[in-house]
Amino acid sequence: MFYTFTLTLRPTYMKKSPLLLLAGMALATACTRAPSTSTANTGEPALSAISEAELREDLFTLASDEMRGKRAGTVDELRAAAWVAEQAREAGLEPAGDDGTYFQFFPINRTKVADNSTVAINGKPLNLWQNAWLTSPAEVRVDAPVIWLNSLADTARHSLQGKVVAMALQAPAPLPAAGMSLWNYRYVASALRQQTNALKNQKAAAILFVTDAQAESDFGFVGHVFEEGTYQLEGDPKRQNSSSPVLLVHSTAASELQQKGAKLTANIGIDSYTYPSMNVVAKVPGTDPTLKDEYVLFSGHHDHDGIGAPVDGDSIYNGADDNASVTVALLAIGKAWVQQPGKRSALFVWHGAEERGLLGSRWYAAQPTVPKESIVAVLNADMIGRNAPDSAALLGSIPPHRNSTALVDMALNANKQYTNFVVDTSWDEASHPEGWYFRSDHLPYARVGIPALFFTTLLHPDYHTPRDEAERIDMAKLTRMTRWMYATGWAVSESPERPAVDPNAKLER
Fold first, then answer.
1. What kind and span of H or E run contains 279?
2. CA pair distance 244, 203, nearest whole angstrom
3. Is 333 a domain residue?
4. How many domains, the chain?
């Protein structure tokens, strides 16, 4: 949900030393590529070149605690990107980023509530991010009386202009679908949106919602999202906030808010930062004199959630399935392609800042390092190492998400010939409550008209928790999924015709 404020930003900061360090590493790796050990194209994909043992070794490195969760805009993401680039170099992949390097840097802008912000009820301070949460960063000063509402119907009995509205958070209607990912976050977000929309025209000085028992039952992740603030690409339209700041306060504050003459005092500032994030980009040239100027793009993301709210004492969100599984899969596919190049060239893009809103793939789709028209297909993957051993999903395979029937047929034929997964298409339906198609890095490419598919083994209870650890990955399944993705790309590479975009293909949103 978005709220409209007039914001006064404080000075912008940018930590330059990690960026300069990594840029130097990028130039160094570009100049020391390992020699190619390619073999002749036999017409069949080199599936045996994809090794479960190598996938395991890489996965346990990238998803280790030493990588600290690889959060976008941090030194930890820089470290992970440098590791990926070095593995690509050692495997013989050529740099395909900016200026002859393996990297494409881009700036991400973060806005968060300033650390020195204060909130008090009746002169008693509340601790931000412990018992009070601002739901969207805003520069705001409030010193106003509180009106307690027992229900939204009470708005008809009061003039709320210039006052602070306080009421209990009410369950949204309808509730998020049972079993939906990040259910508690969706519960809180839906409840906030519905109640705020009902109050947004009242010209209140601020709106306070007292958390209910459901919101408090598992609030660590939700509160951490609010504390982290918002992320955008440079040049994105400024987010519009409502004229009244919205805060969540713990239920222990209810009695203070209901007192006669209750008053809220808040002095909230915001800080704005510009961080470097980066895509890692590498390629393996094709063998056909004409087709080598076209690319099959293999896509994934190398970032995750970093350090967050502890769960059972663990605060490192390692992201083994999401998305170290795909990061190492792309490395394995790259090694196979070096060993046996296809007719078309293979392009590998490990996107940064996916978890902050598909920022890396949005940047690359708008500013690719190869001619956009030379990208014949995007094969993206996200989370390919969990759930039942023989099940998988292919999104972008049915309308309205399918934008290339030819590409879908290649993927399904590759599965039938080599990997034999039972393919679940239910998550690709427009009516599916998760909206999973719209949550990974193929989307920006599909929006600019490039044939695109999304390989996944779907969500599980460890999604976006510290329990997404390397030892929980089904390595045999990860190996099969890697081979399916590779075999599909190989079919695209070998086809005399590039997969066509379906006429009238159009996403529902």
1. strand 270-284
2. 7
3. yes
4. 2
